[in-house]
Amino acid sequence: MSTPKLRRSSGILLHPTSLPGPFGIGDLGPTAYRWVETLASMRQSWWQVLPLGPTGAGDSPYQSYSAFAGNVNLLSPELLERDGLVPAAFWAGQTFPDDHVDYARVTPFKTALLRAAWDAFRGGKAPHLRDEFTAYSTAQAGWLDGFALFMAIRESLGGRPLTDWPGDLLRRDPVAVAATEKDLATHVARHRFGQFLFDRQWAALKTYAADRKVRVIGDAPIFVALDSADVWVNADQFLLDSDRRPKVVAGVPPDYFSADGQHWGNPIYDWSRMAATGYEWWTGRVRRDLQRVDLIRLDHFRGFCQAWHIPAAEKTAKNGKWADGPGAALFNHLRFALGDLPLIAEDLGVITPDVDALRNGLGLPGMKVIQFALDTPKNPYWPHNFDRPCVCYTGTHDNETTNGWWATLDEKTRGYLGAYIGRKVEDPAWDLIRLAWSSVAVVAIAPLQDVLSLGGEARMNKPGVATGNWQWRFQPHQFWTGVIDRLSGFTELYNRLPLTDAKETTPAGRG
Fold this sequence. Notes:
- By secondary structure, the protein is of the alpha/beta class.
- Helices cover 39% and strands 11% of the residues.
- The chain is built from 19 helices and twelve strands.
- An eight-stranded parallel β-sheet has the order 9-6-3-2-1-12-11-10. A four-stranded antiparallel β-sheet has the order 5-4-7-8, with no helix packed on it.
């Protein structure tokens, strides 16, 4: 099995929540379209995002209520107005911070926005959407029905997490579920409608990007949240006890990011049970992701070889053990069902030979992060040691921004980078961008924070810290004079320009 062949290219990592705009959080409306135009003007081929699902604990996109659903906090009020669902008067007088996401204010606003859109639709507004919504509900029923009911029940219980639900609903007793679904029918339909709107807005934006030669790299967290429709509907696919509580949870042992390791708390798959079903859940999940993005960053790839199983009672990730994952068997099933898969293997951290063997056997590009390189000339994250194919990053959403990282380094380490590039480092973010763009990596990616030369105040996430993450938003004035031309120039200099239609459809040597 191999990934479809990637060509030399580059892009920028920016989650939609970080876009500017007047509604407290980036969304899929006019500002997103301007962002796509900016990517095209910088001659970038890729827009990399984080997971697009509805966020749960800690507002983290890696703790979602569903691996299949979209985040309705990203719905654009302006696009809903264009569809005739919500008048501009709905948000008149609303003000939000413009430099960060205040989820405590944004989430209630977006929830009320969806309610208003749904009430308008039920009342006869936007009739042009009726057939489309009906067709969508039928086509996506396999995951949509369970998700919509999960969200409606959770809402009716005041937001109580799944493990605190009444026992008959937690265990999906057929009589209790049927009665509850009947009682909450209108609310269930509203959640279906929210997903329809999200997919409609996202699909239009993605098409707009594709027309401008910008493709999307998505992100698939290997694990799902305990408080999710995935676990509720598919409890037999996870290592849970009779009370639907996890026997073990996921994380990683102590590493570069955290002395205590990372205690993610996610339930872990029962891979034996999944194999018996032909990996049906995973096949549906990847198929769904490929409806939304062009290339998938497969998070925590090493977990498919072995995952760190932490006893559920443990408070940190120090005490755990490695347990085998599905290995190539899962990917063979996915290839049989879906064909060759466009995947990037997130193979950061302590990687053992079996992980490299699996990635190489599947023909998947791994990840290289230059911020991890500064120790010895043999470090695999130095560009001179890159194996191909690989995707090179200056940093990731889990790293400090490059300028913030640089501020923490001692003079000896700073001198090491200077020796590597052959001069004193005066612009660390752009020196790492140059290293990434000039490297042999097939794709080079920089977080927008690095392109804008921002410091630690713009960091997106601190692994192991439960609160205060995922809030950063950029502001238009941060695009300093010349930044677009500079990145465009790097992209041309290092041969990462997007291909034209003619070059894509008429390869050299063919008529």
